[in-house]
Design brief:
Elements: H1 3-20, E1 23-28, H2 33-38, E2 41-43, H3 45-54, E3 59-63, H4 66-75, E4 80-83, H5 91-94, H6 98-107, E5 112-116, H7 121-124, E6 129-131, H8 136-142, E7 149-152, H9 155-165, E8 170-171, H10 177-180, H11 184-193, E9 199-202, H12 207-210, E10 215-217, H13 219-228, E11 233-237, H14 242-249, E12 254-256, H15 272-279, E13 284-285, H16 290-306
Parallel strand pairs: 1-2, 1-3, 3-4, 5-6, 5-7, 7-8, 9-10, 9-11, 11-12
Antiparallel strand pairs: 4-13
Bound molecules: iron/sulfur cluster (SF4).
Length: 307
């Protein structure tokens, strides 16, 4: 069989296994295009959390990095959350290990802790509230606390929110390496090539990059902006996986990634073969003890109530 016939056979097998296993496939906007195309739903962290919370399927195949699978498990604890690989983590989530956060809490008992959803379940269990890049602004506008706030783990997202909302949150020393690598020079270069194209960047980019953009948004925000805009050409400053969906949903528009390409190596570990493995019992299942689920789900539920 040639490669395309092999891929077609793999797709058919996945769909048959999905039916047999009463499974749904959720995929993040950053995974490879062929994985997005087989998913029941593609979205950002907030949208995927909502889908997991509404889920009635026995099995969720989660095409994203580990903290996303954990979030799905927290919100749908009776489902089996199956990951295509156990090797797709999020380096930013790992920058806030629970023992360091416990120490911070001991040293700063007055702080109100807000975690970006890109954190492990153990870290979530230690915080007061979770946010995503899609709802952080809305939720922070509503929060009424006299306590000092620590925002973790993404210092770029935190700094961008501080600047936009006039806040003074303390920031954890973490970042998304893929977005943090985006340099102002890359934006300048893209603007030279496409001077009329609006620049849309992710909120995980550094503040000086955000300052050069026409809009700084979540991935869902970037997709909505492109869809609703009358412009025909856009510069996209986020992980390149999103270009697949942007082009698919807007065939009459042009989308230009940055140079060098913005890649999350962990998101790229998720393959169609991995999805097949997950459905045939050869993948990796998220397991979280009940006691930890009870603690870690609370700040996510608070987030969903506010958003
Ligand atoms: S793109 Fe960044 S924040 Fe998202 S999973 Fe990859 S490393 Fe983590």
């Amino acid at each position: 069989m040639d490669t395309s016939a092999n891929t077609q056979k793999l797709r058919e097998d996945i769909l048959e296994l999905k039916r047999q296993k009463n499974a749904i496939i959720l995929a993040h906007n950053y995974v490879q295009g062929d994985v997005q195309d087989i998913a029941d739903f593609v979205g950002d962290s907030l949208e995927l959390s909502r889908k997991a919370a509404e889920n009635h399927a026995e099995n969720i195949v989660f095409c994203g990095v580990r903290f996303m699978g954990e979030t799905a498990k927290l919100l749908s604890p009776r489902a089996h959350v199956l990951m295509p690989t156990q090797h797709a983590g999020c380096p930013m989530a790992d920058m806030c290990p629970p023992h360091e956060l416990r120490q911070f809490k001991e040293d700063h008992p007055d702080h109100f802790l807000i975690a970006y959803v890109n954190t492990t379940a153990e870290t979530k269990a230690l915080v007061d509230l979770c946010v995503t890049s899609g709802n952080a602004e809305k939720i922070l506008r509503k929060i009424d606390t006299q306590r000092p706030i620590l925002f973790l783990p993404d210092q770029n997202l935190g700094a961008n929110l501080n600047q936009k909302l006039g806040l003074h949150m303390d920031l954890w020393n973490g970042c998304c390496r893929s977005h943090n690598r985006i340099a102002t020079e890359a934006i300048e270069l893209a603007k030279q090539h496409y001077p009329d194209a609006p620049v849309l960047v992710h909120l995980e980019c550094r503040p000086e990059v955000v300052a050069m953009a026409d809009a700084a948004l979540s991935t869902a925000g970037i997709l909505a902006y492109a869809k609703n805009s009358t412009q025909k050409s856009f510069i996209i400053g986020t992980e390149s996986g999103i270009l697949h969906r942007l082009k698919k949903e807007n065939p009459d528009k042009d989308f230009h990634g940055l140079w060098p390409n913005v890649i999350c190596p962990d998101m790229k570990k998720i393959t169609l073969q991995g999805v097949h493995d997950a459905l045939s019992g050869k993948g990796f299942e998220i397991q979280i003890p009940d006691e930890l689920i009870a603690k870690a789900v609370a700040p996510i539920q608070r987030m969903l109530e506010h958003s």
